[in-house]
Design brief:
The complex is a heterodimer of chains A (387) and B (158). Chain A contains 15 helices and twelve strands. Chain A is of the alpha/beta class and 387 residues long. Chain A has a single domain, classed as Peroxisomal Thiolase, Chain A, domain 1. Chain A has a nine-stranded mixed beta sheet. A two-stranded antiparallel sheet of chain A has the order 6-7. Chain B is mainly β and 158 residues long. Chain B has one domain: Nucleic acid-binding proteins (OB fold (Dihydrolipoamide Acetyltransferase, E2P)). Helices cover 9% and strands 35% of the residues of chain B. Chain B is built from one helix and ten strands. Chain B is extended. The chains are: A alpha/beta (387), B mainly beta (158). The interface between A and B is medium-sized, with 32 and 23 residues.
Chain lengths: 387, 158
Amino acid sequence: MKTVGVIGAGMTLFRRRLQETGKEMCFEATKMALDSAGLTRADVDMVVNGTAPDAFDGVHMKGEYLADGCGGYRKPYTRVFTGGGTGVFSTIAGWWHVASGLADVVLVVNEEKMSSCQPHPQSVFAHIWDPILDRPLKPNLVWIFAMEMNRYMHVHGVKKEDIARVAVKNKRNAVGHPCAQLADPNITVDDVLASEVMAWPVQRLDISPPSDGASAVVLASEDFIRRRKIKDRAWISGVGWCIDSTMWTDRDLYFPEYVARAAKQAYKMAKISDPRRQIDFAEPYDPFDYKELHHLEGLLLARKGEAPILTREGVTERDGDLPVCPSGGLMGVGNPIAATMGQKIGELFWQLTNQAGKRQIPQEVHTGVAQAWGDLMQYGSVVVMSS
Amino acid sequence: MTFLERTTDARKLRHWEGNMEADYIYTSGVAGERFFVALRDQGKMLASRCAACGLDYLPARLFCEDCFAELTEFVDVPQEGRVAGLTVAHLDREGVRLSRPQVWAFVTFQGIRGGLVHRLLVPPGRARVGLAVRPKLKAREDRVGAITDIEGFEPVGS
């Protein structure tokens, strides 16, 4: 198996509604990633696109529709999709193109244009529920997360204040991010606790709203990186992915077993036996504040029920012992589903190559983990990267 | 043997009705905005030029799909095009027979990469590949900046 490195990354602004078409957003992110790697489209062997349901953009088979914007014209091109998990999974798909020896250079481009869907993407989200058992009850997707959050809080006796600290941390971290939609340098725990209740215990500021955006990364083989003398690179040292039972009623919602299994697969490949000691920082998927805590435990970076305590003690702050979502995450930068690759894989690349600017973690970091989560709450994808 | 079911009454509890309700609003994009504003206000079609590849793209676009340059220069598309391929539709998209067959064509322009698919405003008997055509636009006051500002293509000299 070939060793694979990330050598470039780019992302667009994340906004509620961008003028650019999906193709144009893909082009901007892809061009930025290629420029940062010092490559042109001619250097690219294959292209992977990641994007969530067609129904968001309102273009059927949007993988094909976006292909030219992703640099896919007349190249081997594939779209992959694992719901929100696509944010990290598409990089895994890109990785296997290179690790297999089939390609030297692969572009991975993720996109979402959720503003096309009116009045709100919720009307489309509602259709991931079972059509016979659940949908006749007219559920709102937030209900399912509210029940998971409630179960997590109940099992461990977690207080809402400790969950709100995640929203505050990430929205403040995002202040240094040039693409951020939801940065707020002055937000407080009280602001989160005073925000509108959507589906208790989920309040308005516990959740990251829909967005438009695109992101891209360039992957290359070790041979190519050495031959071209590319200095800014971060190695992909482990990958893992897992799906749990598709019946959400068949899972105990307090712990993301699918993330733990994906993480163990990735850690084994990366030769990580003690994640808390060997991993310097993390970018877990945080479309809700409680999900960062949930996923930190799934990633085995905190014991079950310990993540809120680490957060309260400042361990997960950018200058803490285990910085978590130094990018600002989905809570701070925004949540155009698959395009959140920019805060996950992109941020690992920028941090590990010392290019994160104002967001750079003050202490030296050598190993980071990125994770995304999706489908009907049961899909986990994990990538470990090292300098 | 569910596939043999003939029940269409949900009250008989053999099926549940569903409807994926979603409406869409699309942005025409950065290059699309230029294209449609020129079509609406000036009654002309724009192509975007890739100097590096020596190509003019119709419809106008933000980037060259080949060399991946950002395209910022726009040129006028020639007034006259040619029918490159055509079809005569007898059924609408619901499968209902049209009162009169409609001719649809793919129209290309000399020196232009791409082209447009639109109505060909001739009787089926006169439709042929190679026919010289030009766009027929709606009146200025009726144009809104959409592909339907073009009524179709009509033969040159008609």
